[in-house]
Amino acid sequence: MYNAKAVIVGIIVFVALFTAPFWLSMMGKDYKSTGIELPKGEKECIEDVQFMRDQHMRLLNEWRDEALRKENRVYVATSGKKWNISLQNTCMKCHNDYEGFCQKCHKANGVDPYCWTCHIIPQGSK
After folding, report:
1. Partners of 76 in the beta sheet?
2. What are the boundaries of each domain within the chain?
3. Which helix H or strand E contains 22, and what residues bound it?
4. φ, ψ dihedrals at 74, nearest 5°
5. Cβ distance 79 to 86 under 8 Å?
6. Backbone dihedral region of 33: left (phi > 0), alpha (psi from -120 to 50 degrees) or beta?
7. Is the dihedral of CA 16, 112, 115, 24 positive or negative?
8. pTM, whole model, 2 decimals?
9. Are strands 82-84 and 74-76 parallel, antiparallel or unpaired?
10. Cβ-contact 82, 75 below 8 angstroms
11. Which DSSP state fits 122?
12. Phi and psi for 103 in degrees, rounded to 5?
């Protein structure tokens, strides 16, 4: 085989470049902490803090499917507490500061959610 060494080096370089994003994501930190805390006067969120950091978008997508497609409007948290499935009336009841809460985390982590194509952006504390 002609240029066997060059072919082998080329394959190794290709595999390294192709898998680089996977290796870099494993070495890095997934979530950038922004110092966001529970709103004043609130003792708990729907789930624990780590779950909400990691899975809140998945939870919101599940809520959408449950409420709109299956007509189930009640979410039972891992604590056993029941919550009304509603972005506007459950989540935004506490997290009503869009710039200081939602946007702060999304900008820090480079996320551009599509929530606001349908929902009204909150205009600050009431």
Report:
1. 82
2. 49-117
3. helix 4-27
4. -125, 130
5. no
6. beta
7. positive
8. 0.64
9. antiparallel
10. yes
11. P
12. -65, -35
| Residue 28 structure tokens | 């890095």
Distances (CA, A) of 72 to 8, 12, 90, 109: 57, 52, 15, 32
Which run of H or E residues covers position 75? strand 74-76
Token representation of residue 116: 């606001």
Place of tokens 């946007």: 103
Question: Per DSSP, what are the bridge partners of residue 75?
Answer: 83
C-alpha distance from residue 8 to each of 3, 17, 32, 57, 119 (Å): 9, 14, 39, 43, 53
Residue 22 token pair: 């996977």
Q: What is the pLDDT of residue 17?
A: 92
Check residues 66 and 101 and name the one with the higher pLDDT. 66
